[in-house]
Write a structure and sequence with these properties.
Radius of gyration: 16 Å
CATH superfamily: Flavodoxin domain
Distance between the termini: 10 Å
Number of domains: 1
Order of helices and strands: EHEHHEHHEHEH
Strand order of the largest sheet: 2-1-3-4-5
CATH architecture: 3-Layer(aba) Sandwich
CATH topology: Rossmann fold
Largest sheet: 5 strands, parallel
Shape: globular
Strand content: 15-25%
Bound molecules: flavin mononucleotide
Number of helices: 7
């Protein structure tokens, strides 16, 4: 199985650290995975020209071109994002917009995905993290991707706060593991 891992958020922040934990805690020996850290990428906004609806290609040349090829080739995707104003992070939104060439040509259909979102609020009394998860799930469902799991991690404001959230990290690991189920490991 080929797995594409997309991490948004601060460089080495809570999203990145959660992703690292999920990798460490799962046996990925039979999985070909790659990590795209959006903090290292230069991705222009989708300009909405819609030419990709006809051509299946984007006219913009930047770091997204390699990510599109990677996404096309992958069987599954894992998204790790901070919550920003009850939504997915801006860099992840820009990246998802730029996946439109694959969505329009239905080349994302049948792939599996999970999302793990991290925020500062407490999941018990605030909906912002679940709204962020919704925004990623809505993208997946609209793009024909089978959304098979999600995890909300709250009470994480400063970078590194997630390291103290042991039970949340276990939940994130279990969510990530859903992508591996049915794989020979
Ligand atoms: C502009 C901005 C908006 C934010 N909005 C929310 C929010 O709506 N809900 C929430 O729980 N946390 C919110 N946060 C807090 C971040 O989600 C939190 O600091 C998270 O741990 C950052 O993850 P990172 O270290 O991977 O970047 C916001 C942070 C920023 C910078």
């Amino acid at each position: 199985m080929k797995l594409l891992i997309i991490v948004a958020g601060r460089k080495n922040g809570n999203s990145f650290q959660t992703m690292t934990h999920c990798l460490k805690s799962n046996n990925l020996s039979a999985v070909e995975y790659s990590i795209v850290d959006l903090s290292e990428k230069k991705i222009a906004y989708c300009d909405g020209c819609l030419s990709c609806d006809e051509t299946g290609k984007c006219h913009i040349v930047d770091d997204m071109n390699a990510i599109v090829l990677n996404a096309k080739d992958s069987d599954a995707m894992a998204f790790f994002s901070p919550v920003r104003w009850s939504l997915l992070s801006g860099d992840l939104k820009v990246m998802l917009d730029r996946l439109n060439p694959l969505a329009a040509s239905e080349e994302l259909s049948g792939k599996k995905a999970v999302a793990i979102c991290i925020g500062q609020t407490d999941v018990k009394d605030d909906v912002s993290i679940s709204r962020a998860l919704d925004s990623i799930r809505f993208f997946c469902e609209n793009a024909g991707i089978s959304f098979i799991g999600e995890c909300a991690i709250g009470n994480c404001l400063e970078s590194g706060d997630v390291c103290a959230r042991e039970s949340d990290l276990i939940k994130a690991t279990e969510t990530f593991k859903k992508l591996l189920q049915g794989e020979v490991i």
